[in-house]
Amino acid sequence: MRIVVFGAGGVGGYFGARLAAAGNDVAFVARGRHLEAIRRGGLRVKSELGDIHLEKSEVSDDPRTLGRADVAMFAVKLWDTETAATAARSLVAEGGVIIPFQNGVESIERIGNVVGAEHVVGGAAYIAATISAPGTILHTGTMARLRFGALLASQADRIKSFHAACVAAKIDAELVDDVRRIVWEKFVFLAAMSGFTSITRCPIGPIRSDPDMRAGLAAAIAENCELARACGIELPGDFAAKQLAFADNLPAEMKSSMLHDLEAGRRLEAPWLSGAVARMSRERGLAAPVNATIYAALKPFCEGAP
Predict the structure, then answer these.
(1) pLDDT-based confidence at 172, cuts 50/70/90?
(2) Which CATH number do you get for residue 260?
(3) Contact, 274 vs 193, CB < 8 A?
(4) Domain limits at 274?
(5) Are residues 166 and 201 in the same domain?
(6) pLDDT value at residue 230
(7) CA 62, 67, 72, 74: dihedral to nearest 10 degrees?
(8) What is the edge-to-edge ordering of all strands in the sheet holding 58-60?
(9) What's the confidence (pLDDT) of residue 105?
(10) Residue 33's closest CA among 124, 121, 136, 130?
């Protein structure tokens, strides 16, 4: 199976390295200093689950040079979705599929509008990982999970083969039936956590242990649940409470990728996270004051350090 990882950052770099180390045919799309470091010294992963060093990796900043892909793992930042999807057309032109492992909840449609719905399936990644230095991915904690599923019958065989490759690489991977619900379930928690860690500049530990910040996080999660249900996603009544309990079991030092971007002065995904909750809620006549406030507080930083 030919796998192309489009976006070799924390998510793509980690899971792509695991797949490559297990003997799969994996190529990476990267850019800038990260690209040059991988070309020069390979790709490294530092993780409690085991370190990896791919001494030689096929890597390019131009996906057109990488030929076809059976599966393209799509892990670019949300602001780059349409541009990257346009560049990825050549990868799936012969029937391959793109699995978006991004933080937002609108990627299936956004990518499908560019490459065609038949080339897009659904996916969600659960991991705290970031580029700690060019050519190096740092994985925090031991959570590293993929969940994905076909949206059309024609995609099923290819996705089953990808799942088999993940299992053989000892990746915690689950093939799911209702993948849209899975994407929303992740979004409910991720949008709240990314927003609160970013506006407080704190990892999850201090947020969950302070009564005021914890209440704010819980309110953001509740708003996200209300939006999901308004969009036709069936969530159990205790789903919000379970998400807060999930936060209690995360490593205290865990930060969202958006907080890492904020601290580094990079662009933020806030318009497609808390901003998307505020926008989509408003369109449906719902109130989402916590998410709207988070987005407003982060707007000066959305294009990078002001």
Answers:
(1) very high
(2) 1.10.1040.10
(3) no
(4) 181-301
(5) no
(6) 98
(7) 10
(8) 58-60, 25-29, 2-6, 71-74, 97-100
(9) 96
(10) 136
Yes or no: say if 125 and 105 are a contact pair by the CB < 8 Å rule.
no
In this prediction, residue 305 carries a pLDDT of 87
Residue 122 lies in a domain: yes
What is the pLDDT, as a whole number, of residue 42? 97
pLDDT value for 295: 98
Q: What is the pLDDT of residues 103-121, one digit of tens each?
A: 999 999 999 999 999 999 9
Q: What is the pTM of this model?
A: 0.93
Q: Do 268 and 152 belong to one domain?
A: no
User: In terms of domains, do 173 and 185 share one?
Assistant: no
pLDDT at 259: 96
Among 71, 73, 113, CA closest to 94? 71
Q: How confident is the model at residue 306 (pLDDT cuts 50, 70, 90)?
A: confident
Q: Which of 177, 199, 217 is the last residue of a domain?
A: 177
Average pLDDT over residues 218-247: 97
Annotate the chain with three-state secondary structure.
CEEEEECCCHHHHHHHHHHHHCCCEEEEECCHHHHHHHHHHCEEEECCCCCEEECCCEEECCHHHHCCCCEEEECCCHHHHHHHHHHHHHHHCCCCEEEECCCCCCHHHHHHHHHCHHHECEEEEEEEEEEEECCEEEEEEEEEEEEEECCCHHHHHHHHHHHHHHHHCCCEEEECCCHHHHHHHHHHHHHHHHHHHHHHCCCHHHHHHCHHHHHHHHHHHHHHHHHHHHCCCCCCCCHHHHHHHHHHCCCCCCCCHHHHHHHCCCCCCHHHCHHHHHHHHHHCCCCCHHHHHHHHHHHHHCCCCC
Tell whether 132 and 185 lie within a shared domain: no
